[in-house]
Specification:
This protein is of the alpha/beta class and about 325 residues long. The protein folds into two domains: about 200 residues, 3-Layer(aba) Sandwich (Rossmann fold); about 90 residues, UDP-galactose 4-epimerase, domain 1 (Alpha-Beta Complex), CATH 3.90.25.10. About 40% of the residues lie in helices and about 20% in strands. The chain contains ten helices and 14 strands. The strands form four sheets. The protein has a seven-stranded parallel sheet, with helices on both faces. A three-stranded mixed sheet has the order 12-9-14. It has a two-stranded parallel ribbon with strand order 7-10. Helix 1 links the parallel strand 1 and strand 2. Helix 6 runs parallel beside helix 8 and helix 6 crosses helix 10. The longest helix is centred in the N-terminal third of the chain and has 20 residues.
């Protein structure tokens, strides 16, 4: 297929692009490079530098599908300044959908998020049918796009899939996390192991969990990419489907810390602090719908996630 990947110079977008190319697809990446990296775009993809509102000038009827990753993604920033999140994540996606409709591109795979669920009422794994009540503008903007896709499917025959990610980590080939600022646990722990920070922070040690730290569902980015390829195969005209993507299990912060120490051989000192407001004790995906609907099964475990992320980080050190 001939595909447009928005945000393909970012972390997840670049890994998915690499998998698409390996599967024999023709890929054009559209990325404004505000947070993405030009050198993250895998060889073989065509890079067009520009905002997603420029999609009308990139798409044409020869394209088969759009995979949409371009978004602003920092929760705290979205609370402090929500305007750009509504402008880019919702307004930009609206322009992208209109461009796709104009050119008759009727397959759409959207990078959504578990932040659409907000603060879950219990520790049970979250299902796609659970209430979506986001607690910040980032999650709200992603949920707005989910609603938008349902409307486009009904009105215009769009075939769309929203993939709600839980905690994504790891690396694939030359593609890994390079966020600034970095807010994710695994790369921040690895920064300490690499000598780039004196210690990491653990927020909350009094949660009602096995060791008092919060539980999160970690998924290898390569398993995530596999789900996108399967979603492309299962898109149906006039239908919008939502799937959770996670491991279906969870690890505490201390368990992730122990894995980082095992893999790197570094003591990784931490400083413990109080809980952060709005952080639930447990956030884990129920992935049964993706298993049944996409035939998808994550296969990589926590130590492999950490080892691949560590190899990427060390590779960046060597090349720097």
């Amino acid at each position: 297929m001939k595909l447009l990947v928005t945000g393909g110079a970012g972390y997840v977008g670049s890994v998915v692009t690499a998998h698409l190319l390996e599967a024999g697809h023709e890929v054009t990446v559209l990325d404004v490079l505000s947070t993405g990296h030009r050198d993250a775009v895998p060889p073989g993809a065509t890079l067009v530098e520009g905002d997603i509102r420029a999609a009308a000038d990139v798409l044409d009827p020869s394209f088969d599908a759009v995979l949409h990753f371009a978004a602003k993604t920092l929760v705290g920033e979205s609370v402090q300044d929500p305007g750009p999140y509504w402008d880019n994540n919702v307004g930009g996606t609206l322009a992208l959908l209109e461009a796709a409709r104009t050119h008759g591109v009727n397959r759409f795979v959207f990078s959504s998020t578990a932040a659409t669920y907000g603060d879950p009422p219990s520790d049970a794994p979250l299902r796609e049918t659970d209430p979506a009540v986001p607690t910040n503008p980032y999650g709200a903007s992603k949920l707005a796009v989910d609603h938008m896709l349902s409307g486009w499917a009904r009105a215009h025959g769009l075939g769309a899939v929203s993939l709600r990610y839980f905690n994504v980590a790891g690396a694939y080939g030359g593609c890994g996390e390079r966020h600034d600022p970095e807010t994710h646990l695994v790369p921040n722990l690895l920064r300490v192991a690499a000598g780039e920070a004196p210690h990491a922070s653990v927020f909350g040690t009094d949660y009602p969990t096995g060791d008092g730290t919060a539980v999160r569902d970690y998924l290898h980015v390569a398993d995530l990419a596999d789900a996108h390829l399967r979603a492309l195969e299962h898109v149906e005209p006039g239908t919008h489907r939502v799937y959770n993507l996670g491991s279906g299990g969870g690890y505490t912060v201390r368990e992730v810390l122990a894995a980082v120490r095992r893999v790197t051989g570094h003591p990784v000192p931490v400083v413990e602090g109080p809980r952060r407001a709005g952080d639930p004790a447990v956030l884990v995906a129920d992935t049964e719908r993706a298993r049944r609907g996409l035939g998808w099964e994550p296969v990589r475990k926590l130590d492999e996630i950490v080892a691949d992320a560590w190899a990427f980080a060390r590779g960046r050190e060597v090349s720097a």
